Amino acid sequence: MNAASIFGNLGERARAAFARRGAAAGASGGAGVDVPVRDWVSTSAGQPTRLLGFDLTLIWVVLSLLALGLLMVYSASIALPDNPKFAKYAPMHFFVRQALFILIGLLAGWITVMIPVTFWERHAPKLFVVALVLLMVVLIPHVGKGVNGARRWLPLGVMNFQPSELAKLAIAMYAANYMVRKMEVKENFIRAVWPMACALAFAGVLLLAEPDMGAFMVIAAIAMGILFLGGVNGRMFFLSVAVLIGAFVLMITFSDFRRERIFAYLNPWDEKYAQGKAYQLTHSLIAFGRGELFGQGLGSSLEKLHYLPEAHTDFLLAVIGEELGFIGVALVIFAFFWLSRRLFHIGRQAVALDRVFAGLYAQGIGIWMGGQAFINMGVNLGALPTKGLTLPLMSYGGSATVLNCVALAICLRIDIENRQLMRGGRA
């Protein structure tokens, strides 16, 4: 069974949807006029229903995650100046910078939501090339900024820009655009899968040179997910996945520090690892254990007091668990589940309206947000090996926060255009 048989041919589904709408229009006497498919937001006895031009719930969920993330970044970083490594920083340093990043991200999202989706479809290959160039530039000595042995940032004065975050957005656009162009030959491996595999492999080599295996995993998941949803041949898809998994296994096998991380993950409480490779994991688990059901209270975490490294970035969820308990963690998990599900719904709606690029892009962003959140949560909870991936929208980081907002703003624009089409207008 191939992917096309699972999800159905996208073009046929779109044509069928328009045929049904045309038939409904003819039956109502409006030949050639589309019948609006309304997305009503409220119905109550004696009150008229109301139609919104955009998804308010999506906006509120995103804003809530940003606000909670800002609050927890402040809580997790307020004690960092006590550490000699951060002695030059003020107690509110990370809070102020994260607030600035969020404002920049919201402004960038507000501008982005005004841009038609067709613009991104036309320029998707160019954006992907720009992302690849920046991934090469960051590897140039004295140009890219290195931190803890990794060279992943370009210093821009106000903030450090991380090209891998742009690469996540670019691969979602490029893969969606690629599938639209290759829709007629998606059953042919050489013409449909091989070029995309080469592009992904090249991006992977650049990311692993930084090194940033976590970003490569997310980018690979986005690209392969869009290929699958686009309807490539099932056998070719699963063969590609097998090759990709084999490549990850080989990277772990021939890398001493990655192999040690796996062993530490399997037995974090071993004395050999508890003070070494599993140090973050053990203290993250202690934080969750202290949180219990309702948490120790906002600001009352002990693990953030120089026990848990990277508490304001990769392990922010552990601080949430310690201070807000199981209830707080469950709400964050539910919010990301709802967000990913909503993005997939927007994507399916766009495909039904024969907007294949928009639909695949929205679903690709759903894979990005849901997949990265899943990996980060799994690492924090000890369900997955330790990997340096932040929690989208919540962890401290400038380029991640801004590009998350931009990516979601494009999805909001897709939803707006979907609603316009369903009301009989133009996207």
Automatic annotation (TrEMBL):
Pfam families listed in its UniProt record: FTSW_RODA_SPOVE
Main location: membrane
PROSITE patterns: FTSW_RODA_SPOVE (PS00428)
Topology in membrane: Multi-pass membrane protein
GO biological process: one example: regulation of cell shape
Main EC class the enzyme belongs to: transferase
InterPro entries (UniProt xref): Cell_cycle_FtsW-rel_CS, FtsW, FtsW/RodA
Source organism superkingdom: Bacteria
NCBIfam families: ftsW
Role: Peptidoglycan polymerase that is essential for cell division.
Database matches in PANTHER family: CELL CYCLE PROTEIN, PEPTIDOGLYCAN GLYCOSYLTRANSFERASE FTSW-RELATED
Similarity comment: family membership: Belongs to the SEDS family. FtsW subfamily.
Protein name stated in the entry: Probable peptidoglycan glycosyltransferase FtsW
UniProt gene name: ftsW
